[in-house]
Every structure is written in C-alpha cells, then in structure tokens.
C-alpha cells in the first residue's frame, strides 16, 4: 500500500499557526527521510482564503529533488493550474471536485457542474505539460451542509468527467464514512472507471478513519492519504478535524502484513516535531505510545 503524505497541504491548511517556508520544507524533508515517496506538498489556492498555502511556489523551489520522490500540487481551477505550471516544481496535480453544490460553492466559488467542466480543462493542461492528474471527489461520503451523498451520485460525477483521470481519489472530507460506504463507493466508481487507479482520503473525525483505511485495502485501493501527526482538516467545513495520521496508519498496515516502505520511528518523531512547531499536541497516537514490538536494545 502506498501512503501519500498530505500533511504539508491538508495538514497545515486548517491550522491557525502560519509556519515559515523553511519549516514547511523541513517537514517535507523529514517525511522523505521516513520513507514517504509521494507528497502533496502545496495547494495553489487564493492566499486570502487559505493563507497557510500562500508560499506554495517558494516551498516547491526549496524542497529536496530526488528521482523517486513525486510532489503533488492541489488545484481548484484553471488559475491554480497556471500557477502550478509556472512554478515548474510539481510532478502531479490533484484537482478537487466537491460532490455537492453548497460545499462546492463555499470551497471553490462554483457549482459542482461548473467545477466538473473545469476538470477537463485542468486535466488537458496538466497532460500537455507531462504531469499526472488525479481527480479527487471531496465530500464523497457525506456533506456538512446537504447531508448524505450516495455512491451512485459520486459514480455519476466520475462518469461525467470527459477526461479520464490517471487516478481517482475518494475523499471523506468531514470524516463521516464507514467501511460499508467504502465498499459501495469503490464498487460503483470502479464500474464506471475500470482500470483507473483508486486512492482514498480519510479523516478521523468520528473515529472511523482507520477502519475505513482497512476496508479500502480490502477492496483494492492502491494508495491512502495521511497526515504525519494527524493534523489538519478543511477550513470550509464546520468542526473538521485532522486526517488519519501517517504514523498510525503505517503501524496499522505493517501489523496487518502490508508494507508501506516507511519507517515508523521517523514518522512518529516527525509527527511530534510538526505538532511542536504548531504549538499543539499531535492527534497521532504512535508518538505517545510507541511502536510494538518495541525496538531491541543493545
């Protein structure tokens, strides 16, 4: 299972403390040292609306460049893609399509239908630049404003995308999903987009994020988003809390017999470190409890 580290983007975007570019780059560097190889490093969002991401270009200019590390930039519209292309620092773009109109208006200032139309433009621009393009369906498990979102509705949005994504990410943006929904969503989306790699994005708002991660593994999802330290959330969703924690997810997967290529001790240290930079206690548990079995002592 591949873990996509989203702490530098989704983790930081909902935190009140604004970190320096240097601290963000160190956060990313520490994640790489812990074995992470896909990192959602920045969002190309309007700096007045998401000030935590205002230095996206500066971050990408300073991060380590390794042949096996892929940097992802989140974009919400064509303007975001133009910034991503101008920065010449991203390897992939992640386009967010919100499943419901009210949340889409609050998050991106447009309807879901208008956002879907922009996906085709963004995907074409990314492909022309040689970049991989992921379509993330946000609020795929439920919306804080309009309630339930069905798997059939999400699959219909995916089917309506004229440009085939390289990857589809199903996002439980507000942490309301349960494993049954994971199974339904994966089944419905796979039926309309056969052969497209699936990724999932879970928040632990109601303590179901890790159960959902195991369900995604069972149903053949190839990548899971997580945030080192378990920090973050969506600034446009009420009572949003952090993503599932990278270190806790890696521990769960490793103990379940699934390799992630990451090192637990370094992940846990990074989670504690970034929480200290933010002046908070990390929601992640591994940094407090430690891995099991504990490392052998000399």
Helices and strands in order:
Elements: E1 2-5, H1 7-13, H2 21-33, E2 38-44, H3 56-62, E3 70-75, H4 78-87, E4 92-98, H5 101-108, H6 112-128, E5 132-138, H7 151-160, E6 167-172, H8 179-192, E7 197-202, H9 209-218, E8 223-226, H10 246-255, H11 264-278, H12 286-289
Helix pairs in contact: 2-3, 2-11, 7-8, 8-9, 10-11
DSSP E strands, number: 8
- By CATH, the topology is TIM Barrel
Tally of helical runs:
12
State the helicity in percent bands. Answer: 40-55%
The CATH homology group name:
Aldolase class I
Report low-confidence residues grouped into runs of 5 or more: none
**Class computed from helices, strands and strand pairing:** alpha/beta
How would you explain this protein's 3D organization?
By secondary structure, the chain is of the alpha/beta class. The protein has one domain: TIM Barrel, CATH 3.20.20. 42% of the residues lie in helices and 16% in strands. The protein is built from 12 helices and 8 strands. Strands 1-2-3-4-5-6-7-8 form an 8-stranded parallel beta barrel, surrounded by 10 helices. Helix 4 links the parallel strand 3 and strand 4. The protein is globular. The chain starts with a strand and ends in a 9-residue tail after the last helix. The mean pLDDT is 95. Belongs to the HMG-CoA lyase family. InterPro entries: Aldolase_TIM, HMGL, PYR_CT. GO terms for molecular function: hydroxymethylglutaryl-CoA lyase activity; metal ion binding.
